[in-house]
Structures are given as structure tokens and as C-alpha cells.
Amino acid sequence: MDDNKTASFSLDSRRAAATGRDDFERSWRTHVGDEFPLPRFSPATATDFRLRFRAARVRDVAITSVDGASAAQTADGPSHDADQVRLWLVHSGAWALGSKRNTVEHTVMPGRFLLRHAARMHHFALPPHTRAQCIVLPAAPFSLLLGGREVAGHADAAEVRLLVAHANMVEEALPDLSPAGVQAARDTVVELATAVAHYGFDDVNTRLAPALAQAAKNLAEQRLADADLSPAMLARELNVSVRTLQRAFAAGGESVTAYIRERRLELARQALLASRLAVSEIAAHWQFADSSHFSRTFKQRYGLTPTEYARQNT
């Protein structure tokens, strides 16, 4: 295996179903490589291949995201040896796995993940409208850790959130990474995956800081209007200490509290332009203590009070 190869591609075959499978296989072999073998797809899949893919190879790690309008299923054929560890995570739909075609041994349901050693290529079936991710990892770091067992659980587990947040960042940033950045990205994927296998988080490992900060930001975005949103709440949800969370943000030159305040101010600014709500209502919705506090904070950030800003921009 060429452990130094790094590449990525994206493909949307939803408007080219007839050629979609061939386009996908060609792109996979060109950018990801045969070291990460593809299965043979069933004839039905070959003629109706309406899926959107994003894939990245980071040396001996491969990250794939799939969003399918059509179903996808493997066909009978030669099986590939693949001494790798795979993690499947399903956001919607399902991912059925089996050692033989039409034999389901495990189905990863929405909101769940499965991590297991895969000595040979698995047959799989995806129903229409499946949105999922598959991360392929080198087997060596997991040989003693897994010991033949598989790990399954909820996709919202703190360790899985960290892994997904980092994997998404790697897919997006890979073309711009230096060789040192590629190595760090690869090592962090593996380390986070071992944390999933352990179901634990190394509280002092600073290499995980970017993924932890991103996972916290993803969670905060969903809770910005929640009065309970705080560094303590985010740390609790992510199963880390507040100090670890603060250190993760500090590594990027910011603080948890400042990030929350900045995002609330930005959404409040948009609300001033897009709605007829009173300043006091906007302040209350985005959890500012009162209108005066909101006005002071807003003016510090944008140079105008909320009333002045709305008057000048509407």
C-alpha cells in the first residue's frame, strides 16, 4: 500500500444515474486507490446510481460520505482481502452488512454507529435516502484494542461527535494541508477512532483540540437560543472537563464564552434586518440579560446601537 498517498474527490450522480456508477468507480480508483477495494455493485444499482459522494484518502485512512437518492447494493463476485478497521455511521436510512449477499448480519440504523475489524470486504445494502459515513482505518492500532469484538452505539456519543467533526474538517481542508498537516490529520483520525473503541477521551491530548472545539461549535449552533447554553453544558454533553474544552478553544485563539457571544450577536444582527421584532424581543430571544446589555455589547461589536444599525440598514 502507498501509505503516503493523499487525495480527495466529490461526485454527484443524481442527474446522471446511467453513468454514475462508472464515474464513481473511476474517481475512486484514481483518487483513493485499489488499496481501499470497492465491491461489485448489483445490476440494479448499476443502472440507477443516484448518489452524492465525498471521499478523502489521508495516507492509510479513507473517509467517505454518501447521500443517496437511490438504493445501492453489492453483487456476488470475488471477495477482497482487506485487513482494515471500518467505522460505519448512519444519519438517515440504514446500512445493512453481511458476509454474503442478501445475508444481513448487522444493520446500522439512523443515529447509530458500528466499529469493527474487516478482514474481508463486506457485502452491503443501502435503501434510498440513506445519508451515512464510512471511515476505513489501518488495522494495526486496533489489533489489541478490539480483540475481535465490535463496538456499536449512539452516534451522539461524545467520542463519535469528535471523530465526525474532525473527519468533516479533513475532507474539506485536505487539499490545502502541508505534509505535516496531513500527518497530523491522519493521526488524529486514528486516535479519535481508538477513543471510540475505548469509549473514552484523553483529557490532556492536545492533538484532539481542533476536533473537540469543532464538535462544541456544532453543538452550540443548535443551542444558541437556549438559556442553558454555557461552557459547562457543552463540556458535559461532550463528556470532557470545562478546562479541557477551554484549552481546546484557546488553541485556536478564542474562548468558549466569546464564541457563543459572537454567534448570538451575529444572529441578532441578522434578525434586526430580517424581522420586525423589537430590540427587547431580539435581546431576550438570543439570551442577552436585558436591552441595555444587548445594546452595549452590540455597539462594542458593530459600532452602532441596535436601533441605529436597524435604522441605517432598513
Q: What is the element layout, followed by pairings?
A:
Layout: E1 6-12, H1 17-31, H2 43-47, E2 51-58, E3 61-68, E4 72-73, E5 81-92, E6 95-98, E7 106-108, E8 112-120, E9 123-126, E10 131-138, H3 143-146, E11 151-154, H4 158-173, H5 179-198, H6 209-222, H7 231-238, H8 242-250, H9 256-274, H10 279-285, H11 291-302, H12 306-313
Antiparallel strand pairs: 1-2, 2-3, 3-10, 4-9, 5-8, 5-10, 6-7, 6-9, 8-11
Helix pairs in contact: 4-5, 4-6, 6-8, 7-8
Structure write-up:
This protein is α+β, with helices and mostly antiparallel strands. It has two domains: 175 residues, Jelly Rolls (Sandwich); 55 residues, Homeodomain-like (Arc Repressor Mutant, subunit A), CATH 1.10.10.60. 44% of the residues lie in helices and 22% in strands. The strands form two sheets. The chain has a seven-stranded antiparallel beta sheet with strand order 1-2-3-10-5-8-11, sandwiched between helices. Strand 2 and strand 3 form a beta hairpin. It is elongated, with a radius of gyration of 23 Å. About 2% of the residues have low confidence.
